[in-house]
Structure formats: structure tokens, C-alpha cells
Write a structure and sequence with these properties.
CATH architecture of the largest domain: 3-Layer(aba) Sandwich
Distance between the termini: 27 Å
Strand content: 25-35%
CATH superfamily of the largest domain: SPOUT methyltransferase, trefoil knot domain
CATH class of the largest domain: Alpha Beta
Number of strands: 12
Largest sheet: 7 strands, parallel
Number of domains: 2
Radius of gyration: 20 Å
CATH topology of the largest domain: Alpha/beta knot
Shape: elongated
Helix content: 25-40%
Number of helices: 6
Length: about 240
Amino acid sequence: MAKLRLFLDDIDPDADTIVVTGEEAEHARKVKRVGPGHAVTILDGRGGVIEAEVVNIRRELELRIIERRVEAPVSPRLEVYAAAPKGPRLDDMIDALSQVGAASWSPLETKLSVVDPRPGKLARQERIAREASKQCGRAWVMTIGARQRLEAVLEGTGPETAVVMADVGGERYERTGRGVVRLLIGPEGGWTEGEVALARSKGARVCSFGVHAMRIEVAAAVCAGVVMEREGGAESRGADSR
């Protein structure tokens, strides 16, 4: 049976046991069918990881803590600024970006953007990012940022940040070696010539990630995956075990 993962906040750092209630316990009991001795990984979304085992399960789930550790964030830090796709496609994009390893996503405002996600929609994406973290086992939850204008995203970058604009007419993406990669994904209508020229003038690299134009949610996941693979992105497992 696959290991059960739970996402819990505010765990007592001195506790030897954890009692899980509510939806998480209900899901473990009715869907996952866990029982005594079953292995459980608990994530707090801020790097904290607890390995535990089930001691007892009725309406509540009682766990015995075996190990605590803190894992380092994925390196490089991949910040995705992408135009928001329509409808449920945004949900799919957030789920995919979280699994790929992006550190954050913020909706990007461009000349041809057509979707402006409201606070309620962004709150939903935070929940999806948490669920995706639990599903794929990442120790740091992907954060959801506020809407940003392209001009603002291109400004204020330090020497450790590489800005990459995804465009089918760009060059092949090559490793930057930077600690932060800021990836820009345009709207369905694409970038305007002025936006591409602005990005280049600010030192951004314009790169192609495929032979065809892609939908926003596909482009975001594909480009993020290429960046993480070529930059050698990986999580430092087991750092600061305690």
C-alpha cells in the first residue's frame, strides 16, 4: 500500500504523537483504508516533514512520530509569472506547476491578457497547491502571488535572478546557473512585439521550448519542467534531520 501523506499546520514540536481529526482522518479511514502500522508522512508546507506510523484509527487517527526533519527548498527557485487561462484550465496549471517544482505562480498582466482572477479564484488556487503538494510529496508548498504587470516583473531583479520569456520565436533554453529563474508565460494571443522588445531591453532571455505554440497551462508546465531539468533542480532530502 502506498504511503499516506497528510498536510497539517502548527504541529507541537515536542509531541511524540499526533491526533488527526476532521476531513484528513475521514479520508485516511474511508478512502485510504489505513490501519495500525501504516506509514504516514506529514507535511507542513514550510519544509517540515514528519515520518510517522498509525497507532490507532477510529473516528480519529492517532500517529506515533518516528522522525522529524526540515528539507531545503528546491533549487533553483523557479518563479512563474503566467497569464491566467480560462475556467478550470487554471486549476490544471497550478496542479502541474506544483508537481514540476515551481516555487510560486503569479497571474501576469499583459497587453493581450483576457482573464483577471479575483481573490476567491486565487484562494482556490492556494488550496489546489496544497493538495498538489500532498499528492507529490513536496515539502514546500507552491505560493500563489498577486497579479503583476509585465513591466514590474522585468524590474527589480538582482544578479542571482535570470528572467526568461517563453516565445516560439526565441532561442533554445540553456542553463543559466542562477539561484532564481523568473519564467514568463504569455496569454493565448501571445506577446506583442513591444513586449518582446521591452523584455530584451531589460536583459531577459527570449527562449523557445517547443516547435508549436501551446495553450497557457501546457506551456507553463512544459517550460517549467525544461527549466528545472536543465538547471538541475532538486530538493535537498533529509537536511537538518532531528
